[in-house]
Amino acid sequence: MRTLFKAWLVTLLCSLWFVTGARADDYPSQPVRIVVPGAAGGVLDIAVRKISDKLSRSLGQPVIVDNRPGANGFIAAEAVAKAKPDGYTVLLAAVSHLCTNQSLFSNMPYHPVRDFAPVTLAAGGQPILLVNPSLPVRTVSELVAYAKARPGRVTYGSPGMGSPQHLAMELFGQLTGVQMLHVPYKNNPQVATDLIGGQIDTAVEYASMMAPHILSGKIRALAVVGDHRKPALPEIPTAAEVGVPGFEITAWYGYVVPSGTAPAIIARLHKDFTAALKSKEYVEFVESFGSTVYATTPEDFAARIKADTLHWANVIKQAGVKVE
After folding, report:
1. CA distances from 292 to 36, 134, 246, 289, 318 (A)
2. pTM of the full predicted structure?
3. How confident is the model at residue 23, as a pLDDT?
4. Backbone angles phi, psi at 255, to 5 degrees
5. Rounded to whole angstroms, what are the CA distances from 97 to 2, 78, 212, 252?
6. Are 74 and 108 in contact (CB under 8 A)?
7. Residue 232: what pLDDT?
8. Is the CB of residue 99 less than 8 Å from the CB of residue 113?
9. CB 254 within 8 A of CB 297
10. Which of the four pLDDT bands, split at 50, 70 and 90, describes residue 8?
Protein backbone atom coordinates (compact mmCIF):
# COMPACT_ATOMS: atom_id res chain seq x y z
CA MET A 1 0.00 0.00 0.00
CA ARG A 2 2.79 2.41 0.94
CA THR A 3 4.56 1.66 -2.36
CA LEU A 4 1.37 2.30 -4.31
CA PHE A 5 0.83 5.60 -2.45
CA LYS A 6 4.37 6.75 -3.26
CA ALA A 7 3.88 5.86 -6.90
CA TRP A 8 0.57 7.76 -6.97
CA LEU A 9 2.20 10.79 -5.33
CA VAL A 10 5.06 10.82 -7.81
CA THR A 11 2.60 10.54 -10.70
CA LEU A 12 0.51 13.40 -9.28
CA LEU A 13 3.52 15.70 -8.82
CA CYS A 14 4.75 14.96 -12.31
CA SER A 15 1.31 15.69 -13.70
CA LEU A 16 1.15 18.99 -11.85
CA TRP A 17 4.62 19.90 -13.10
CA PHE A 18 3.59 19.04 -16.66
CA VAL A 19 0.40 21.10 -16.47
CA THR A 20 2.23 24.10 -14.94
CA GLY A 21 4.99 23.83 -17.51
CA ALA A 22 2.49 23.65 -20.34
CA ARG A 23 0.70 26.72 -19.11
CA ALA A 24 3.99 28.60 -18.83
CA ASP A 25 5.01 27.46 -22.32
CA ASP A 26 1.68 28.63 -23.79
CA TYR A 27 1.80 31.98 -21.99
CA PRO A 28 0.35 34.37 -22.92
CA SER A 29 -2.77 33.08 -24.65
CA GLN A 30 -5.19 35.83 -23.55
CA PRO A 31 -5.13 39.57 -22.72
CA VAL A 32 -2.92 40.76 -19.84
CA ARG A 33 -4.52 43.17 -17.37
CA ILE A 34 -2.47 45.78 -15.52
CA VAL A 35 -4.30 47.09 -12.45
CA VAL A 36 -3.45 50.70 -11.60
CA PRO A 37 -4.17 52.11 -8.09
CA GLY A 38 -5.02 55.51 -9.51
CA ALA A 39 -7.47 57.30 -11.75
CA ALA A 40 -7.14 57.61 -15.52
CA GLY A 41 -4.85 60.49 -16.36
CA GLY A 42 -2.85 60.21 -13.12
CA VAL A 43 0.90 59.76 -12.94
CA LEU A 44 0.80 55.96 -12.57
CA ASP A 45 -1.85 55.62 -15.27
CA ILE A 46 0.18 57.66 -17.77
CA ALA A 47 3.30 55.64 -16.92
CA VAL A 48 1.74 52.28 -17.82
CA ARG A 49 -0.06 53.57 -20.91
CA LYS A 50 3.30 54.79 -22.25
CA ILE A 51 4.50 51.18 -22.52
CA SER A 52 1.21 49.32 -23.10
CA ASP A 53 1.54 49.33 -26.91
CA LYS A 54 5.07 47.95 -26.76
CA LEU A 55 3.95 45.29 -24.30
CA SER A 56 1.03 44.30 -26.51
CA ARG A 57 3.36 43.79 -29.46
CA SER A 58 5.99 41.83 -27.56
CA LEU A 59 3.49 39.68 -25.66
CA GLY A 60 1.34 39.11 -28.70
CA GLN A 61 -1.79 39.88 -26.67
CA PRO A 62 -3.80 43.01 -25.80
CA VAL A 63 -2.69 44.80 -22.62
CA ILE A 64 -5.65 46.22 -20.70
CA VAL A 65 -5.19 49.06 -18.20
CA ASP A 66 -7.63 48.61 -15.32
CA ASN A 67 -7.91 51.73 -13.13
CA ARG A 68 -8.90 50.97 -9.51
CA PRO A 69 -8.36 54.22 -7.54
CA GLY A 70 -9.18 54.86 -3.91
CA ALA A 71 -8.56 53.63 -0.36
CA ASN A 72 -4.79 54.31 -0.42
CA GLY A 73 -4.30 51.68 -3.10
CA PHE A 74 -6.04 48.95 -1.10
CA ILE A 75 -8.72 48.35 -3.76
CA ALA A 76 -6.23 47.71 -6.55
CA ALA A 77 -3.74 45.75 -4.45
CA GLU A 78 -6.39 43.48 -2.94
CA ALA A 79 -7.83 42.72 -6.38
CA VAL A 80 -4.43 41.56 -7.65
CA ALA A 81 -3.54 39.72 -4.44
CA LYS A 82 -6.70 37.61 -4.83
CA ALA A 83 -6.34 37.08 -8.59
CA LYS A 84 -5.24 33.77 -10.09
CA PRO A 85 -1.43 33.51 -10.20
CA ASP A 86 -1.43 32.87 -13.93
CA GLY A 87 0.41 35.96 -15.21
CA TYR A 88 -2.67 37.65 -16.62
CA THR A 89 -3.11 40.12 -13.76
CA VAL A 90 -0.30 42.56 -12.93
CA LEU A 91 -0.23 45.35 -10.34
CA LEU A 92 1.50 48.66 -10.91
CA ALA A 93 2.55 49.46 -7.34
CA ALA A 94 4.27 52.43 -5.76
CA VAL A 95 6.51 52.53 -2.69
CA SER A 96 3.49 53.40 -0.53
CA HIS A 97 1.59 50.28 -1.58
CA LEU A 98 4.48 47.87 -0.99
CA CYS A 99 6.53 49.51 1.78
CA THR A 100 4.93 52.25 3.90
CA ASN A 101 1.25 51.29 4.10
CA GLN A 102 1.89 48.37 6.43
CA SER A 103 3.48 50.70 9.00
CA LEU A 104 0.78 53.37 8.61
CA PHE A 105 -2.35 51.22 8.77
CA SER A 106 -3.30 48.72 11.47
CA ASN A 107 -5.52 46.70 9.13
CA MET A 108 -4.73 45.96 5.50
CA PRO A 109 -6.59 43.66 3.07
CA TYR A 110 -3.33 42.39 1.58
CA HIS A 111 0.24 41.64 2.66
CA PRO A 112 2.86 43.51 0.58
CA VAL A 113 5.39 40.66 0.63
CA ARG A 114 3.39 37.48 1.13
CA ASP A 115 0.78 38.23 -1.54
CA PHE A 116 3.00 39.45 -4.40
CA ALA A 117 5.94 38.33 -6.49
CA PRO A 118 8.14 41.15 -7.91
CA VAL A 119 8.63 41.45 -11.67
CA THR A 120 10.67 44.64 -12.01
CA LEU A 121 11.21 48.04 -10.48
CA ALA A 122 10.20 50.50 -13.20
CA ALA A 123 11.14 54.11 -12.46
CA GLY A 124 11.31 56.69 -9.73
CA GLY A 125 12.05 60.27 -8.89
CA GLN A 126 13.57 62.26 -6.07
CA PRO A 127 11.77 65.40 -4.90
CA ILE A 128 13.06 68.88 -4.06
CA LEU A 129 12.92 70.78 -0.77
CA LEU A 130 11.13 74.05 -1.53
CA VAL A 131 10.20 77.26 0.27
CA ASN A 132 8.06 80.27 -0.50
CA PRO A 133 10.36 83.14 -1.61
CA SER A 134 8.97 85.37 1.15
CA LEU A 135 10.60 83.12 3.73
CA PRO A 136 13.96 84.75 4.64
CA VAL A 137 16.02 81.62 3.89
CA ARG A 138 18.15 80.70 0.87
CA THR A 139 19.87 77.55 2.11
CA VAL A 140 18.96 74.43 4.04
CA SER A 141 21.07 75.54 7.00
CA GLU A 142 19.19 78.84 7.09
CA LEU A 143 15.87 76.98 7.01
CA VAL A 144 16.99 74.79 9.90
CA ALA A 145 18.07 77.81 11.95
CA TYR A 146 14.87 79.69 11.11
CA ALA A 147 12.66 76.72 12.09
CA LYS A 148 14.57 76.01 15.30
CA ALA A 149 14.03 79.62 16.36
CA ARG A 150 10.27 79.13 15.78
CA PRO A 151 9.43 75.57 16.89
CA GLY A 152 6.06 74.40 15.61
CA ARG A 153 5.37 77.66 13.76
CA VAL A 154 6.99 77.01 10.38
CA THR A 155 4.49 75.10 8.22
CA TYR A 156 4.98 72.47 5.54
CA GLY A 157 2.39 70.98 3.21
CA SER A 158 1.94 67.51 1.77
CA PRO A 159 -0.71 65.75 -0.33
CA GLY A 160 -1.92 63.80 2.70
CA MET A 161 -1.04 61.98 5.91
CA GLY A 162 1.45 59.21 5.24
CA SER A 163 2.28 60.42 1.72
CA PRO A 164 5.94 60.19 0.61
CA GLN A 165 6.18 63.98 0.90
CA HIS A 166 4.87 63.91 4.47
CA LEU A 167 7.27 61.14 5.46
CA ALA A 168 10.16 62.98 3.78
CA MET A 169 9.54 66.03 5.96
CA GLU A 170 9.26 63.83 9.06
CA LEU A 171 12.67 62.42 8.13
CA PHE A 172 14.00 65.95 7.66
CA GLY A 173 12.86 66.85 11.17
CA GLN A 174 14.49 63.74 12.63
CA LEU A 175 17.80 64.43 10.89
CA THR A 176 17.96 68.14 11.74
CA GLY A 177 16.07 68.37 15.02
CA VAL A 178 13.55 70.92 13.74
CA GLN A 179 9.85 70.89 14.63
CA MET A 180 7.51 72.11 11.93
CA LEU A 181 3.72 72.06 11.59
CA HIS A 182 2.30 69.61 9.04
CA VAL A 183 -0.57 70.87 6.86
CA PRO A 184 -2.11 67.93 4.94
CA TYR A 185 -3.90 68.55 1.63
CA LYS A 186 -5.94 66.33 -0.66
CA ASN A 187 -3.54 66.44 -3.61
CA ASN A 188 -0.28 67.84 -5.00
CA PRO A 189 -1.75 70.80 -6.94
CA GLN A 190 -3.25 72.19 -3.72
CA VAL A 191 0.18 72.04 -2.08
CA ALA A 192 1.75 73.86 -5.03
CA THR A 193 -0.94 76.55 -5.05
CA ASP A 194 -0.62 77.32 -1.35
CA LEU A 195 3.18 77.21 -1.39
CA ILE A 196 3.22 79.76 -4.22
CA GLY A 197 0.61 81.83 -2.43
CA GLY A 198 2.47 81.80 0.86
CA GLN A 199 -0.21 79.97 2.85
CA ILE A 200 2.47 77.40 3.76
CA ASP A 201 6.20 78.00 4.21
CA THR A 202 7.81 74.90 2.78
CA ALA A 203 7.18 71.55 1.12
CA VAL A 204 8.86 68.63 -0.58
CA GLU A 205 7.57 68.14 -4.12
CA TYR A 206 8.63 66.79 -7.50
CA ALA A 207 10.26 68.59 -10.41
CA SER A 208 7.58 67.36 -12.79
CA MET A 209 5.16 69.80 -11.17
CA MET A 210 7.42 72.43 -9.65
CA ALA A 211 10.16 73.05 -12.23
CA PRO A 212 8.28 75.87 -14.05
CA HIS A 213 7.59 77.63 -10.74
CA ILE A 214 11.23 77.24 -9.67
CA LEU A 215 12.49 78.66 -12.95
CA SER A 216 10.04 81.57 -12.78
CA GLY A 217 11.05 82.42 -9.21
CA LYS A 218 7.61 81.75 -7.73
CA ILE A 219 9.16 79.05 -5.53
CA ARG A 220 12.71 78.79 -4.15
CA ALA A 221 14.49 75.43 -4.32
CA LEU A 222 16.92 74.57 -1.51
CA ALA A 223 18.03 70.99 -2.19
CA VAL A 224 17.31 67.79 -4.08
CA VAL A 225 16.10 65.15 -1.62
CA GLY A 226 18.27 62.49 -3.20
CA ASP A 227 21.77 61.38 -4.10
CA HIS A 228 22.28 63.24 -7.37
CA ARG A 229 21.49 66.58 -8.96
CA LYS A 230 18.83 66.90 -11.62
CA PRO A 231 20.11 67.53 -15.16
CA ALA A 232 17.21 69.90 -15.86
CA LEU A 233 17.97 71.91 -12.68
CA PRO A 234 21.72 71.41 -12.19
CA GLU A 235 22.17 74.41 -9.90
CA ILE A 236 20.16 72.79 -7.09
CA PRO A 237 22.51 70.89 -4.71
CA THR A 238 21.68 67.58 -3.07
CA ALA A 239 20.80 67.44 0.61
CA ALA A 240 24.08 65.68 1.35
CA GLU A 241 26.02 68.46 -0.36
CA VAL A 242 24.46 71.05 1.96
CA GLY A 243 25.03 69.13 5.17
CA VAL A 244 22.03 66.80 5.59
CA PRO A 245 23.26 63.33 4.58
CA GLY A 246 20.55 60.69 4.75
CA PHE A 247 17.83 63.09 3.67
CA GLU A 248 16.89 61.03 0.62
CA ILE A 249 13.66 59.68 -0.78
CA THR A 250 12.86 58.01 -4.07
CA ALA A 251 9.19 57.72 -4.99
CA TRP A 252 9.39 54.65 -7.18
CA TYR A 253 6.89 52.36 -8.83
CA GLY A 254 7.19 48.86 -10.21
CA TYR A 255 5.30 45.79 -11.36
CA VAL A 256 4.28 42.76 -9.28
CA VAL A 257 2.09 39.70 -9.83
CA PRO A 258 0.21 37.42 -7.40
CA SER A 259 2.37 35.08 -5.36
CA GLY A 260 2.51 31.59 -6.81
CA THR A 261 2.93 32.77 -10.38
CA ALA A 262 5.20 30.35 -12.23
CA PRO A 263 8.86 31.47 -12.43
CA ALA A 264 8.81 30.97 -16.21
CA ILE A 265 5.89 33.39 -16.54
CA ILE A 266 7.58 35.95 -14.28
CA ALA A 267 10.71 35.63 -16.43
CA ARG A 268 8.69 36.27 -19.59
CA LEU A 269 6.97 39.31 -18.06
CA HIS A 270 10.29 40.62 -16.80
CA LYS A 271 11.82 40.30 -20.26
CA ASP A 272 9.00 42.19 -21.98
CA PHE A 273 8.48 44.83 -19.29
CA THR A 274 12.17 45.74 -19.02
CA ALA A 275 12.50 45.94 -22.80
CA ALA A 276 9.60 48.40 -22.91
CA LEU A 277 10.95 50.39 -19.95
CA LYS A 278 14.38 50.72 -21.54
CA SER A 279 13.03 51.89 -24.89
CA LYS A 280 14.27 55.28 -26.04
CA GLU A 281 10.78 56.79 -26.01
CA TYR A 282 10.04 55.70 -22.45
CA VAL A 283 13.42 56.79 -21.08
CA GLU A 284 12.96 60.22 -22.63
CA PHE A 285 9.43 60.45 -21.21
CA VAL A 286 10.59 59.58 -17.69
CA GLU A 287 13.61 61.88 -17.81
CA SER A 288 11.48 64.77 -19.10
CA PHE A 289 10.02 65.22 -15.62
CA GLY A 290 13.20 64.60 -13.67
CA SER A 291 12.87 60.89 -12.95
CA THR A 292 14.97 57.83 -13.80
CA VAL A 293 14.24 54.41 -15.29
CA TYR A 294 15.28 51.65 -12.87
CA ALA A 295 14.43 48.43 -14.76
CA THR A 296 15.77 45.69 -12.46
CA THR A 297 15.72 41.96 -11.87
CA PRO A 298 12.93 40.53 -9.69
CA GLU A 299 15.54 39.77 -7.03
CA ASP A 300 16.84 43.34 -6.96
CA PHE A 301 13.29 44.67 -6.76
CA ALA A 302 12.54 42.35 -3.83
CA ALA A 303 15.66 43.61 -2.05
CA ARG A 304 14.60 47.23 -2.64
CA ILE A 305 11.14 46.54 -1.21
CA LYS A 306 12.67 44.96 1.89
CA ALA A 307 15.18 47.77 2.46
CA ASP A 308 12.65 50.57 1.97
CA THR A 309 10.09 48.83 4.19
CA LEU A 310 12.57 48.71 7.07
CA HIS A 311 13.80 52.26 6.48
CA TRP A 312 10.35 53.87 6.44
CA ALA A 313 9.08 51.70 9.29
CA ASN A 314 11.76 53.26 11.49
CA VAL A 315 10.92 56.79 10.32
CA ILE A 316 7.18 56.23 10.85
CA LYS A 317 7.66 54.67 14.27
CA GLN A 318 9.89 57.50 15.46
CA ALA A 319 7.44 60.10 14.11
CA GLY A 320 4.42 58.32 15.60
CA VAL A 321 2.48 58.61 12.33
CA LYS A 322 -0.70 56.55 12.00
CA VAL A 323 -3.44 56.69 9.37
CA GLU A 324 -6.80 55.11 10.10
Report:
1. 20, 32, 20, 9, 30
2. 0.87
3. 58
4. -115, 135
5. 48, 11, 29, 11
6. yes
7. 84
8. no
9. no
10. very low
